[in-house]
């Protein structure tokens, strides 16, 4: 995996060797950021990357101008790879990692507010429905902020029921759900 654009362009990042992650493909990541560049100025924003895994989405946002990225990852071996990726880019001062589940993180009452939130859970992880509700109900997203969830085409029916909207875009076997505040 690599950073596609920005100050870390072409730098490699490691993928966790874990059954608990499903890294976002470069195709999906590039498509997402092509859409984002026309919708939000990434310069100076604060980003949340939930179910962070390797940190690919958050680190791409950092490379393209985000000021700060917060990552949520609960698996210890995956957390270690994420930390290595941040260190390899010398980005420790711009990143914070929360080692806890996405569900527990989104129940925190006192928290930052984010301009951009990515959620890329394992495809058949259904706590994303509650995580989505918590993010909206607990005000994690700033006014004008964007919340993007990547899911499988195989979970589409349950996701549409839980999120209350149709997928924004289909990329390969991924569906992108897009929420704006």
Task: Explain how this protein is built.
This protein has 181 residues and is α/β, with parallel strands linked by helices. The protein has a single domain (26-180), classed as Vaccinia Virus protein VP39 (Rossmann fold, 3-Layer(aba) Sandwich), CATH 3.40.50.150. It has helices spanning 26-36, 56-63, 76-88, 102-105, 128-137, 156-163, and strands at residues 46-50, 68-72, 95-98, 114-119, 141-152, 169-171, 174-180. A seven-stranded mixed sheet has the order 3-2-1-4-5-7-6, sandwiched between helices. The longest helix is centred in the middle third of the chain and has 13 residues, at 76-88. The termini are far apart. The mean pLDDT is 93.
Compute the average pLDDT: 93
Bulk shape: globular
Order of helices and strands: HEHEHEHEHEHEE
β-strand number: 7
- Provide a count of the helices: 6
CATH architecture: 3-Layer(aba) Sandwich
- The total domain count is 1
Low-confidence stretches: none
Q: Approximately how much beta-strand content do the residues carry?
A: 15-25%
Using the coordinates above, name the CATH class: Alpha Beta
Strand order of the largest sheet: 3-2-1-4-5-7-6
N-to-C terminal Cα separation, in Å?
A: 31 Å
CATH superfamily: Vaccinia Virus protein VP39
Derived structural class: alpha/beta
Largest sheet: 7 strands, mixed
Say what the CATH topology is.
Rossmann fold
State the helical fraction.
25-40%
Q: How much is the radius of gyration in Å?
A: 15 Å
